[in-house]
């Protein structure tokens, strides 16, 4: 079939330029019909019944003939299901999971069980998000409400041969409507429970004969569904807006220029944290007059301050398309800035123990250029280049609260069994080393850090199709990526206890000040060294019990003489595929593809030198530390230990076989796959910090099945399911031990999305009543593989969400509707984590409660 845009013809062929795998479809026939009608009216494309046009292959092709594992959600489905951002998209796309954690900007996109990137701006997501072809490098830049969306395509599996940056697990591609040459638009207002006010609108029209414009905006405000009990304030609210303008210019019949500028802002208090297990430290929280939530799904929480999360996200892009018959050229140039500010209580109790501030900024420039052919002969190609230049900066700090000293005093008494313990005693014993009375855990700065990272990357990618005879298409694709990161981290630790090594301090005191540094200790006779070390690490050292309270020791600045603060990666990825059209209604294919994601950097205070660069001594002693490059260079700081500065690249591999059918009243898509990521970048909270390292190998075998059934003209059923058999083939150095052979936590075995849509037509009036019910399910699964502090556990999650809507759509463009999300008020745990500096306590995030409301919409 040939798809022709207004003044811009692009002929497409069956099974053109693709990535990998199967086709997913969860779009009601009513949505298809409306999109087809709108497209025909607007001149966007020519549609047949049950034909959906996608750009997953960087070309306009029909969903049926595009051999990529892509699930499509139409703009109408987004409206009917009240899906306002990508967080809600997972309810209609079973292969996609989106998790939101402690604030509005900490989210992770997961496809087929693979995904990362939350909580650390040094880690780019394995799932790439593109909005109108522009890469959004951090999840915080793609979370705002989506206005004027034409469709969202979720591409499963590695897509490196089509996308230039970080697509090792998949891609979320959001496509918005272009400006139109006929004046029109829409306005929508919705009101719901929790005092939810949602308004959005758009307008489009011509500017002369060869130019058009569009403007759209949205505003979303809602009271929080949670309560900070002790402060009497809401939490988990909504307060965000977005605005965007577009200009379309077509100076000639074969040249099109589309410019977009947008600005969005989030200013919210997020998120509700509850306690699943109140460990032995809970008594100390109550002992200092604090409290913590123990009724997990009450949405009541206790904090000593209202959390603040502000996100400013803005930028612009220019896309130029030139069509010269058999050759078309596309250029997309974009610049974006993201500012993220967080100020929150991170002990998640009403006691004033510790709070954190993060002030982050990301500046990104991207340039994509590609050439595609549309020859009548048996060979066609796509060739592209992508350039990425990004700067990341972060200033952050931890502050010790007024209750901190008393809180940790109570913990120390419980740990030592000494009811008379005070830090004044410790300070008196360490006074010769300069420790002042009332200084340990005193209210004030605990840490202050500065991080920065510059990332330059470029890639060349392409595909070639060869059609030796009608029906069979052989495809080869490649991607070469070169990625460079330069990073710098510096930090200060202000707590005097953390600045003293208890072994070295004992040796200094025991030697009456004769040994104050490593050189003096190493100069002693071996027998004297051994004797002092045995005393310092034995029961005679009264300071040994203090090591659990040295939470934030001094930080070794990078780059330094040993660590250069650089990563340098390059990789060849490729695709091999055979696709065969048995008939116009039935297609099959087999593909093998690889993918790549470059190294990620641990931009946090938990960045540590690799073992080998530094080898700590007993109980982190610097005096007794063996020779290592950092020690020999005189760089070692007090209480330095090892960990990771960065995680190496991810390398993906997938085998896939698929079958797609499109028959009158029934469409289906089946894909079976075996996908592996070597070096998966694992990032896990350990109770006081975050650990970044590579899993040896994680793999998943499974299948995806999607179908749409239209038994009668106005009734549409959809069913989509994903089955995942996931395993850590090798992960020997996880924060919770050797996980090799275990199923990764948080990946459900079964995920199901299904819907029923019925459209009742009132005669020939053009008025319609559209009723929709959808259901999404995730099978019961362990949330994690254990927690570093709490240890093994049986915290599980099962999801059963029912959403519904009913809309009266009048022929004059007026629509009146009602909707509900999580209609049956299903409760489940989003995730869990070790209580911050509270060993034995487990905290977590509860799912959102039922929301409902009414909507008025007018389209003109």
From TrEMBL:
Localisation per UniProt entry: Cell outer membrane
GO terms for cellular component: cell outer membrane
Top-level taxon of the source organism: Bacteria
Record's bilayer topology term: Multi-pass membrane protein
Domain (TonB-dependent receptor plug): residue spans on this chain: 63-171
Pfam (any one): Plug
PROSITE patterns tied to this protein: TONB_DEPENDENT_REC_3
InterPro entries membership: Beta-barrel_TonB, Beta-barrel_TonB_sf, Plug_dom, Plug_dom_sf, TonB-dep_rcpt-like
Biological process according to GO: iron ion transport
PANTHER family (alphabetical): FERRICHROME IRON RECEPTOR-RELATED, TONB-DEPENDENT OUTER MEMBRANE RECEPTOR
Name recorded for this polypeptide: TonB-dependent receptor
Native organism: Pontixanthobacter aquaemixtae
Phylogenetic placement of the source organism: Bacteria, Pseudomonadati, Pseudomonadota, Alphaproteobacteria, Sphingomonadales
């Amino acid at each position: 079939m040939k798809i022709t845009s207004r003044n811009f013809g692009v002929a497409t062929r069956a099974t053109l330029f693709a990535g990998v795998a199967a086709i997913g479809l969860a779009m009601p026939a009513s949505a298809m019909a409306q999109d087809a009608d709108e497209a025909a009216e607007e001149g966007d494309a020519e549609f047949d019944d049950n034909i959906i046009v996608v750009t997953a292959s960087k070309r306009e092709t029909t969903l049926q003939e595009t051999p990529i594992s892509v699930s499509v959600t139409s703009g109408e489905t987004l409206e009917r299901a009240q899906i306002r951002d990508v967080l809600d998209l997972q309810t209609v796309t079973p292969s996609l999971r989106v998790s939101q954690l402690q604030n509005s900007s900490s989210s992770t996109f997961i496809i087929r069980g693979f995904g990362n990137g939350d909580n650390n701006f040094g880690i780019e997501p394995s799932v790439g998000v593109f909005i109108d072809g522009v890469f959004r490098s951090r999840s915080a830049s793609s979370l705002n409400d989506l206005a004027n969306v034409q469709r969202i395509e979720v591409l499963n599996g590695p897509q490196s041969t089509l996308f230039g940056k970080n697509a090792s697990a998949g891609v979320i591609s959001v496509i918005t409507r272009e400006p139109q040459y006929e004046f029109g638009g829409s306005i929508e207002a919705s009101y719901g429970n929790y005092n939810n006010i949602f308004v959005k609108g758009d307008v489009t029209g011509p500017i002369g004969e060869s130019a058009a414009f569009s403007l759209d905006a949205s505003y979303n405000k809602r009271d929080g569904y949670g309560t900070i009990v002790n402060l009497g304030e809401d939490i988990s609210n909504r307060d965000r807006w977005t605005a965007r303008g577009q200009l379309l210019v077509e100076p000639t019949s074969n040249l099109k220029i589309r410019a977009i500028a947008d600005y969005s802002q989030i200013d919210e208090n997020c998120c509700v944290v509850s306690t699943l297990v109140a460990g032995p430290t809970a008594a100390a929280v109550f002992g200092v007059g604090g409290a913590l939530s123990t009724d997990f799904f009450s949405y009541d929480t206790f904090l000593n301050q209202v959390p603040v999360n502000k996100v400013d996200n803005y930028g612009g892009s220019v896309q130029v398309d030139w069509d010269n018959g058999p050759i078309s050229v596309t250029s997309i140039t974009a610049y974006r800035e993201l500012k993220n500010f967080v100020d929150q209580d991170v002990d998640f109790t009403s006691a004033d123990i510790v709070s954190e501030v993060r002030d982050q900024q990301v500046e990104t420039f991207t340039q994509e250029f590609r050439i595609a052919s549309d020859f009548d002969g048996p060979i066609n190609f796509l060739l592209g280049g992508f350039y990425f230049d990004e700067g990341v900066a972060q200033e952050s700090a931890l502050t010790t609260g007024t209750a901190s000293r008393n809180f940790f005093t109570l913990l120390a008494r419980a740990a030592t069994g000494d009811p008379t313990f005070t830090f004044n005693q410790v300070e008196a014993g360490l006074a010769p080393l300069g420790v002042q009375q009332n200084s340990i855990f005193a209210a004030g700065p605990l840490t202050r850090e500065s991080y920065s990272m510059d990332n330059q990357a470029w890639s060349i990618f392409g595909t070639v199709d060869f059609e030796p005879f009608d029906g069979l298409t052989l495809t080869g694709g490649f991607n070469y990526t070169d990625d460079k990161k330069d990073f710098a981290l510096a930090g200060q630790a202000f707590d005097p206890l953390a600045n003293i090594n208890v072994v070295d301090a004992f040796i200094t005191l025991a030697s009456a000040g004769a040994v104050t540094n490593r050189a003096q200790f190493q100069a002693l006779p071996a027998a004297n060294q051994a004797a002092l070390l045995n005393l310092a690490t034995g029961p005679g050292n009264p300071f040994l019990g203090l090591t659990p309270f040295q939470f934030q020791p001094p930080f070794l600045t990078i780059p330094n003489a040993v660590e250069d603060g650089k990563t340098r990666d390059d990789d060849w990825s490729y695709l091999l595929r055979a696709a065969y059209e048995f008939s116009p209604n039935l297609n099959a294919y087999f593909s093998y593809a690889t993918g790549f994601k470059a190294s990620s950097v641990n931009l946090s205070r938990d960045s540590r030198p690799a073992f080998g660069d530094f080898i700590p001594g007993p109980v982190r002693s610097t005096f007794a530390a063996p020779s290592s490059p950092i020690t020999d260079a005189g760089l070692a700081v007090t209480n330095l230990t090892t960990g990771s500065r960065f995680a190496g690249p991810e390398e993906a591999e997938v085998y896939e076989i698929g079958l797609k059918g499109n028959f009158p009243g029934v469409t289906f898509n089946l894909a079976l796959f075996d996908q592996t990521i070597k070096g998966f970048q694992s990032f896990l909270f350990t109770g006081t910090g975050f650990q970044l390292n590579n899993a040896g190998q994680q793999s998943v075998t499974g299948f995806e099945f999607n179908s749409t059934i239209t038994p009668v003209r106005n009734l549409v059923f959809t069913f989509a399911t994903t089955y995942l058999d996931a395993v850590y083939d090798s992960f020997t150095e996880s924060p919770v031990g050797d996980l090799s052979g275990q199923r990764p936590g948080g990946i459900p075995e079964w995920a199901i999305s299904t819907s029923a849509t019925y459209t009742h037509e009132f005669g020939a009036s053009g008025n319609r009543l559209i009723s929709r019910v959808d259901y999404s399910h995730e099978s019961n699964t362990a949330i994690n593989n254990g927690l570093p502090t709490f240890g093994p556990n049986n915290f599980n999650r099962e999801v059963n969400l029912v959403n519904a809507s009913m809309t009266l759509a009048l022929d004059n463009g007026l629509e009146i509707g009602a909707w509900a999300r999580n209609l049956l008020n299903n409760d489940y745990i989003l995730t869990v984590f070790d209580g911050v500096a509270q060993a034995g306590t487990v905290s977590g995030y509860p799912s959102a409660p039922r929301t409902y409301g009414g909507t008025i919409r007018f389209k003109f």
